[in-house]
Amino acid sequence: MNHVLDRHPLPGVPSYVTSSIHYEWCMANERFQVDSFVAELTNRSGHCTVIDVGMNDGFYTMLSAAMGCKVYAFEVQQMCVEIAYDFVARNHFEDTVNIFHQPVSAHNGEAMAIPHFEACDGGFSFSGAFANATNGTRIGHLNLPVRAKPVLRAIALDTFVPSGTVIEILKIDTEGHESQVLQGALGLYKSRAIRRTWLEAFPTGSSRAWSSYAVLQQILSWGYVAQFVGKSRACPHGTFKAADWPAFHQHLSGWARMPCVDVLLSLLED
Known about the structure:
Blueprint (H helix, E strand, L loop, with lengths): L19 H10 L1 H11 L7 E5 L5 H8 L3 E5 L3 H14 L5 E4 L10 E3 L24 E2 L4 E2 L5 E3 L3 H4 L6 E6 L5 H6 L2 H5 L3 E7 L13 H7 L3 E6 L15 H9 L8 E6 L3
Parallel strand pairs: 1-2, 1-8, 2-3, 8-9
Antiparallel strand pairs: 4-7, 5-6, 9-11, 10-11
């Protein structure tokens, strides 16, 4: 589907092909995030790098490539990877999009057993309560049974990203593994190499999920501010700096009662 033919076109974005289902969902549920991507990447064509962790079928990957950015996308679901490769070919993005069928985590080279089933599911998780899923266990939004658990080697972003690289946007949507992704990127945050992070928080109480928000406190201490993003007016307003951590943490701790989905981390400019 060509997004400019949709009833919700994106002004200022070159034509590109992407999943109609994912496109419609993002337009309905993540329009603020989509508009933020476009605003952040406008006028940076050819001079921007985006990292998409939890690519799914590649909506944000293709959007970023259409805006002229170099994109590094990571996804553990085999069918999602195959779908995204098809979109890369249709859009002729082979020179700008790099897709990795690997998890991103805290420790480079870590062996991780990833549940596998025959679908590309936006609610798939290999973390939290699903880390110990066995064959036959039904997981994700589609509630499909696990068929196997192949072992993949994880990538830590601190190891992956070359020194001196500036990341315009890091998008993390891993349904419970976000804190581990952040742990593996602390060096990048400390060196202020990441300008903006879109982060879906999905607390589960697991040691592999949001058992603690200390990693966010550390990132804020390096000159970042945070804000909650969601469709509801009940989301906390304003930005939170390092000095605002008690209030920010209180909101995070009550996340299950909040209608907000994402946290946006932004680098304070000097």
